[in-house]
Amino acid sequence: MAASVTLSNLSCDDNEYSSTFTLSQLPEELLFRTFSFLDVISLIDMGMTNHYYHALCQRNQAGWTNLCLQLWKTKIHVAPAARSLVQEHALAAYRLACADATQRSYVTKPEFCYNPDTHQGTVWSFRFKESAGTDWTSVDPWYRGLPCRQMVFLESGKGMQYVNDDEDSPRLLDPPVPIAWRFLTRPMDLPERPLGSYVRFTVAGRDVPTYSVRRSPNGNWGFVMESCWGLYASYPLPPRRKKILRRAGEEPTWVHADEEDWTCWRNKRIRTRRHLHATLPHDPLQDDSQLLITNEIQWREAFLYNVGARVLPEGDQAIDEFDRAWGGV
Amino acid sequence: MEDAIVKLTSKEGETFDVPRKVAMMSKLVKDTFSDDDDEDDEEDETEVKEVPLPNVTAPVLKKVIEYCTHYQEEEMTPIQTPLKSGTLDELVQAWYANFVKVDRNMLFDLVAAANFMDIKPLLDLTCLAVSILIKGKSAQELRQMFNISAELSPEEQAEAQRENAAAESS
C-alpha cells in the first residue's frame, strides 16, 4: 500500500519530474482556453507554427470573438458586414473590419446620416478653421474652449443642429439658416473619388466649398470631413487645447498647456494638474496646420463663394469652365 | 464536518489526506460527495471519503493541494479578459504568480489536472501562465520552445504574415 502523504511534507522536485502532457497533447478545449488570453499578434504567431495550430487558431473558440469586440468598442465606425459575420467566423470579421478601416476612406449613407425616429446614426462635431476668418471663429464655441457645435444630417438631405443638454432626450433643432447636404464625386478643385468621399453643403441657399471625407488621423476609425474653412468629425472633437507662452530658452514659443504641464512634471520642476480636456499629444485635428484642405488647394471654390456664387460647379469640365469665365484670376 | 478529511489518491496510488473544505474546491470531488449525500446515514459523516484521481500523478496532485490549501487563506484575484496587463505579477497575487513558476512540463500537467478535477481558478491561472509563455514569441521561437515541427507551406506563412501586418496596423 502506498504511503500516505500529509499536508506537512508537501514538496515537489521539478528536476525529477517528467510530464504526462505536452502542449500538443492538451485537449482542444484547454488550448482554446489558453489562446483566449492571447493578443492578436501572439495568436497569429501561434497559428504560424504548424497546420494543427493554424487550424485551431483560426476558430472562434481561440478568442477571436472577444478580440473583435475588444477592438471594436474603441472604434467609431465598424463595417456592418464585419459585425454580421462575427458570430459565424470571428477571424474573418476581424480581418474584414480592419481592411475596411484601412482601405475605405469614404463614408456610406448609413454612416453619414442620422435617423430622428430611432436616434441612431452619426452626430457630427463641427468647428471652423482659422482660415474662415474671425467673423466666424469669434462665434464658434470651440475657440472659447467649449464643446463643438454638433450637427446631424438626415436622409432627406437636411442638416439639423443636435442639442444634447439632457442626455436622456437629445433634441434636433433647425439651424439658424437652412442647411442641405448631398454627396458628389468630382468637385472642382479635387480629384474624382467614390460617392461618399465629398459632401456639398448648401447653407442659406448658397453652396459652400466642398468637404472632403477621409478617415480620422487619430486611428479611431471615425471620419473627418474638411474644407478650406471648416472641419467635421464623426465623433466628439475635444475642446480646444489651451496654449501658453513658454518663456524658457532663447525664443518664447507657444505650446499646448497640457504638454507644458507634462514636460514640467516629467522634469520634476513643477507638478501641475493635467488639463482636464487634454487630448492625445500632437492631436492633428487640434492644429489647422496639420489639416489637409487648404485655401491653396480649394482656391477656385473659395473664390467663387467669396464673389457671391450661389452654385459651385462640379464635374470634369468645371475647371475649364472656371478658367474660361475667370481666366487670369 | 469542518475537520473531515478526504483522501485523494493519485495515479500511482499515493494517498493524500486533505481537509474536506480544501478538497471541495474540486467540482469533481464535490460531485462525488453529492452522489453520496442521498443516503442519510449517520455513520457516513465520520467515514473518511476516498477519491481516486487516476489522471493525476502524485507530484501534480501535491501542487494542486498546495493551491487549494492556500486559496482558503487568500482567494485568488479572478482573471478576467481582456487582460489588464501582460505580466502575471500584475494580474494575480504574488503567491499565485510564484506558484506557476514551474517548469513547462509541470505546468501542462497542472492545466490537465485542473481541468480533470474541475478547479476553475486553478485552470484559469495555469492556462494564463501557458499563454504568457506564448506571448511575444515568433512562430520559430514557439516551435523551438514547444518542440513543434513546422508544416505551413510558404503560401500559408505569407498569408499569416499579411494577417500579422493587418492586425498590427489596427
Biggest protein-protein contact in the assembly = A-B, 57 and 65 residues
Give the number of helices of chain A: 11
Number of domains of chain A: 3
Q: Give a short account of the largest sheet of chain B.
A: 3 strands, mixed
Task: Give the total of beta strands of chain B.
Answer: 3
CATH topology of chain B: Potassium Channel Kv1.1, Chain A
CATH superfamily of chain B: Potassium Channel Kv1.1, Chain A
Report the oligomer. Answer: heterodimer
Secondary-structure class of chain A: alpha+beta
Annotation, overall tally of beta strands of chain A: 15
Q: What shape does the CA trace of chain A take? A: elongated
Would you tell me the overall average pLDDT of chain A?
85
Which CATH C-level class of chain B is it? Alpha Beta
Q: Return the CATH architecture of chain B.
A: 2-Layer Sandwich
Structural account:
- Chain B: Belongs to the SKP1 family.
- Chain B: Residues 5-72 form the SKP1 component POZ domain.
- Chain B: Keywords: Ubl conjugation pathway.
- Chain B: Pathway: Protein modification; protein ubiquitination.
- The complex is a heterodimer of chains A (329) and B (170).
- Chain A has 329 residues and is α+β, with helices and mostly antiparallel strands.
- Chain A folds into three domains: 23-103, Monooxygenase (Up-down Bundle); 109-239 and 293-322, no CATH class; 243-272, no CATH class.
- Helix content of chain A is 27%, strand content 18%.
- In chain A, strands 4, 5, 6, 7, 8, 9, 10, 11, 12 and 13 form a ten-stranded antiparallel beta sheet that branches. Chain A has a two-stranded antiparallel ribbon with strand order 2-3. In chain A, strands 14-15 form a two-stranded antiparallel sheet.
- In chain A, helix 4 runs parallel beside helix 6 (90-103).
- The longest helix of chain A is centred in the first third of the chain and has 14 residues, at 90-103.
- Chain A is elongated and about 85 Å long.
- Chain B is mostly helical.
- Chain B has one domain (5-135): 2-Layer Sandwich (Potassium Channel Kv1.1, Chain A).
- Chain B has helices at 20-23, 27-36, 58-73, 94-99, 104-117, 120-134, 139-146, 154-169; strands at residues 5-9, 15-19, 49-52.
- In chain B, helix 5 (104-117) runs antiparallel to helix 6.
- Chain B is elongated and about 65 Å long.
- The mean pLDDT of chain B is 87.
- At the A-B interface, strand 1, helix 1, helix 2, helix 3 and helix 4 of A face strand 2, helix 3, helix 5, helix 6 and helix 7 of B.
